[in-house]
Amino acid sequence: MSVKAERGDRVDQAREQRFLAAHAACHDKVYRYFRRRTAGPPTAEDLCAEVFRIAWEKSRDHELSVLEVFGIARNVLRNHNRSNVRSINLTQQLELQRTSLLGPDNDEVREALASLKPQEREVLLLTYWDGFTSAEVAQLLHVTATAVRMRLHRARKELGHLLRADQAAEDVSNEP
Asked: Is 119 exposed, middle or buried (0-12, 13-18, 19+ CB in 10 A)?
């Protein structure tokens, strides 16, 4: 065995010892820190694992103190929270974009769409909102193009029926 390989083994063993010491000293505390500040155990476990992944990288140079590990944990939690906020904002923007296409005066259209069967609604939205062809929708939904055309026909027919019924009910309620 060469001197270089032997020194590398000693360095790796020293690094492993530094990491294991830091892990033993604060794993439970870090987990509880995340558990109190996140949605549940799975999230706390994932964040805890991320902290100790980063701690492993940092243990290459020096021994890690409990405060240093908690500093890593705070940064990981902040990143997690920022990611959640971005995700929520994006979801809200997508929902606003989807509903703004209908316009503010089209509550009856939204209600009619919501009352369609999920398969028919999806085909209708993919075709008219997203602009996909029957063949593309078929590929997305893993069905035949014929099935897509049939669902689209049923969806248009049912949507028209629902909107006519809503319009008739509105006309009756507006009569003096």
From this structure: middle
Residue closest to 127 by CA, chosen among 119, 137, 118, 117 = 137
What is the distance between the alpha carbons of residues 45 and 62, in angstroms, rounded to a whole number?
25
pLDDT in tens, 24-56: 999 999 999 999 999 899 999 999 999 999 999
Per-residue pLDDT at 145 exceeds 80: yes
Do residues 141 and 121 make contact, with C-beta atoms less than 8 angstroms apart?
no
- d(CA 52, CA 68) in angstroms, rounded, equals 11
* Radius of gyration from C-alpha coordinates of the chain: 29
